[in-house]
Amino acid sequence: MNGLPEDRPLRSPRPRILFLDAYDSFANNITALLATLLGADVHVLPIDASLERAAFYTELACYDAVVCGPGPGSPDCPADIGLMKYVWATCEARTTTIAPALGICLGFQSLVAAHGGRIRRLRSGGLHGMLRPVEINEDAPDIFSGVAAPFRATLYHSLGADLGQDGVPEKNWPTARWQLSDPNHSLVPLAWVDEKEDALLGGTSTERLLMGVRHCSQPFWGLQYHPESVCTDAASHAVLVNWFRAAMKWNKENGRVRAEPTLSSSTSGLAAHQATRPSLLSIQPSVFAKEANEYTNGHANGTNGHANGQANGHTKGANGTNGTTKYDVVSHPLSSRFISQTIPLPSHIEVPDIVEALQNGQVEGTEPEQIILDSASAGIKRSDSDESVDDDTANDEAIRGRFSIIAVDVASSLRAEYRTGDRFATTRLPHIKSTEAVKIPLQESQTIWQLLAEFHEARRLPQGAVSANDTASPFLGGFMGYISYEQGLGDIGVSLPEMGVAGEGGGRGHDRPDVCFAWVTKSIVVDHVLGVVHVQHLKEEGATHVNGRNGTNGVNDTPYTNGKSHTNGVNGTNGTNGTNGKVHSTWVDGVVAQLQTSSQWQQPTLKSTITKPAILPQAVHTQLPDVQAYEDKVRVCQEHIAAGDSYELCLTDETRITTVSPVSSSSSSSSWNYYRTLRKKNPSPFASYLRFGGATLVSSSPERFLCFSPKSSVDGNDETLCSMRPMKGTVRRSAEVATLAQAEALLHVPKEEAENLMIVDLVRHDLHGVCGPANVSVPRLLQVEPYGHVFQMVTVVEGTLASHSGYTGLDVLAASLPPGSMTGAPKKRSCALLRDLERLPSSPRSTAASASGERSLYSGVVGYLCVTGRGDWSVTIRSLFRWDDETTFVGDGADKKQQDVWHIGAGGAVTILSTPEGERDEMFVKLSRPLSIFE
Fold this sequence. Notes:
The chain is of the alpha+beta class and 935 residues long. Among the domains are: 16-274, Rossmann fold (3-Layer(aba) Sandwich), CATH 3.40.50; 289-365 and 402-466 and 509-605, no CATH class. Helix content is 25%, strand content 27%. It is built from 25 helices and 37 strands. A hairpin with a 7-residue loop joins strand 27 (704-711) and strand 28 (719-724). Helix 1 packs across helix 22 (750-771), helix 18 (627-642) runs antiparallel to helix 24 (827-838) and helix 18 (627-642) packs across helix 25. The longest helix is centred in the last third of the chain and has 22 residues, at 750-771.
């Protein structure tokens, strides 16, 4: 195998490649690149799939070639390489069993280890997200034929291949490196990187790193670098094309004919699955399939129900014969109409003023449920230091924000809740009974995301259902809420701390939801750029009764027309007169009037009185992260990185503040005033305030996680554009770092760029898993942007979903949790390491881990999913939160006080180039703003 086949088109039918996935967070980028370059069908098989050797070889025979992918760990650990060991062992079997193979990173190392080479740690500790020039043997280029060298490639490895290169004298190295020969191995070097040790410190000695190899007699090749990285030179992609041509030539010359699978083991007959995951809406069985049938049967032959609504709104309904099922409020499609009014926003009014104007007359001491997504920095004038920022609309809105969304009447909204690990979801209907809850079972293959996708699809507004004016608002109604970090862990298969069966010594120690969404039909959207307020009502017409209960009174503006009937209706009570078909909402009219007549709206001079600082609860105890313990954890992270277990670990720690306040004023003067204070101290584009689902969240997040929006095109090829903005690399604003140029000088260094690049490639992987090959791009890479009191390095990654594909933005959200900027890479292994490390005592004075050992809302996401299919989600950072189940009371009578526990998470990305002191300082920089409100 010394020559390459002639340059000719790849054969048809479409080639088929097996990809062995070692749970790396870049695998989907490789499968997408292979599919795009080679026109191949790429199937993915996890390295720990339950296949015996013979069964694996039967599977392998159905593919033209196999790629052993990258991943964490070492080839010396059998569990880390799994099925890869069988690939390299095929040379011991019949020739027709041998499948041409390419190993990448861990796969490369497993090839070297299987054929006589040695694997050892790099003396530098590791190269992750680092770009290096790769030198090739131009006299015998093999799969590197036609690739101009040196080319730039991204490295992600802490371990390297040792073929005895260190024993070669320096003067002989330029020639001898291509001729390394040892009776203990059968490998031929193809490419090298000469890495200067301590290069950042001006070191001159080199470490010789093998980058490419082939077996001397078998069709096996390997690449240590990552060809799929966004920063690897695209010209080097020819290496993959050359490899596959060589593989196909070997098959032809050795009589290896790809077998066709039988249909005995699965639908396709193959154990491997498609590289792109199935859409949530295509998964069978449907969560609501059975319940939808019950709904139809239960409504058959009803008498009158809500008939003849033209005259009387909801007439007194006769008894329905069967009643509705307990799931109809969730599973049955409803007819919706969108109604709104737009009014000017006075220049002195801010989002909290609108909320307070709507709450005029509220009983003192109560704390209503709220969901507020606030672009708190949108109205702030850009400083001179920001003028060099590219101010195209999309980028400027992401930096400064544009829209704020206020959910109204949250307490009366249907909500969906889910606790990670449960096999059921819960819907709550507060408008029927405060304790009303319906459990919806999830079968083994079903997830909360499938349930939410089906619910949303049943209520989704079709394109054209709203006017062009209405589409100026990003949110018309739909889901709003939060998702915890632990939900993301469950989604990627990382078990939660002490998860077990409740009541048997296991469990998580609490019953808090990890997913908590309200279906919001009444909302207010503020457009800070245009200076207007949209008051909105998504009117849903259809059954909203549970288990055959009596219907509530009809709303007098419900436009039921003659002939609009619900068969088999439940006992409806007398409704008030409806307005015959008039398209307006009394609720919208009332809210507009309430706002425009409020003291906040009409009298700017009263604003200082209305918003005067309240007396905040007293912080009686603050538990900060222990400096020495945090630095020790950074060192442990670096040891894991050096061992090859991770490329980057986003280590975090928690600060706890216990506050005490009089019961009479605690609810009205704590969380809301904390929010007002934080948004003033640290105005951010993705701030939020949630009092919902047993949680209270006060956030000043600068980081957009994911936004998506359906787009129509004149040629009918409609698509949904998805955008993610991983944020890694932070420097505090100061007198020394006051301008964007000064921040760029500090952030455009190898360590900071590597932190960002690793997460960029991870995010690309998440998007490729849903959007598929050739549908992911990086329009903005490693750009520094200003955010309040800090500068951040940000990259924009975009993906597209074709409308006919069946995928929605919810598919991308479900596939991308937890946020990669809060985990590190590879995501699954890194999350498992962090789970254990962060549970260690954060103070040497403490002998126990935290009560739950969870990040909870911190590192999760907050946002919305609109009925139009749009969505916008932010990462929950620079935030504080508390849970109702941690609230206690001390004293009694007039001296009774409420004691709350507030949590603040902060941390940073640990790489091999980190220092414990530097990571400690970054953690405290991020902690300082939310902590400052307790001063």
